[in-house]
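Usage

Read records sequentially. Each one opens with the input sequence:
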Amino acid sequence: MDNLKILGRMSGFPYKNEKIVAVLGSKKDAFENTCYTVFSTGTHIKVLEISDRITSQRNISFSEFIEKCHIDELSVRAFNDEYGIRLNDDITLDDIRFGVRLLKEIYSADYTKSLVGKKLFIRSLVSDYYTVKVAESLEHGKILRVTYDNGDHDFFVNELPFFKVDMFTPDFANKLSKATTPGTAYMIVFNHRYHLNNRQGLIDDYLERVPKNKQQLEVINRLKTENFEKLCLERLKDNPRISNYKIFKIDGQDFVFYKVSAVRYY
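and closes with the structure output:
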């Protein structure tokens, strides 16, 4: 069975088969094992999400799909090669789930125009070119297509790109991704177990843990001038939930990254 017929069955699953007029775009999430394929049935514009994560949008397993639609496994594997998660020894058809959703009209003409010249946060983690040069609203506001300053294209559906996360700007995030890795930088921003501190952050942590009556001015002044590597060793070495850390500079300022392990209850 060819890929468009499989996509048509997935679009209407489990009630009917839909004819696919065109595949409008397909992309893989840079940080999650998820693929998005936007397509048209002639009547509706929909998005297919395939992932190894179970969410409310991805709640149908490929095993269930194969069994109910009587599609052979080789055809589904070929489909995944083009539009889904590539299978390997660690990921099987039993692990992969999918969901199909209608696209919402959320990209107005005014909003789309406002994006030109803006720096997109997630893009800054994986590329040096993250400023929007051209923004287009397609399919009556259901698809956002952006062109970056190097000519690369990207599309968004059912989400608004963001420009800053807390204290993190795209420019800083880009430098952080180079000092660590894009994946680590992403986790520092979005996962509370990943921590990034500068000297003042380490001092503030110290002040939070020491009773007010025991805070000594000479100690605080020493921490402000202490060698940063020694400061990190002093402040982090005795924490059993921190196994290692990494020290680096961004724009001449010292930073330390560390991951705090989860608390286990027995």
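Summary fields computed downstream for this record:
- The chain is about 35% helix and 25% strand.
- The two ends are 50 Å apart (CA to CA).
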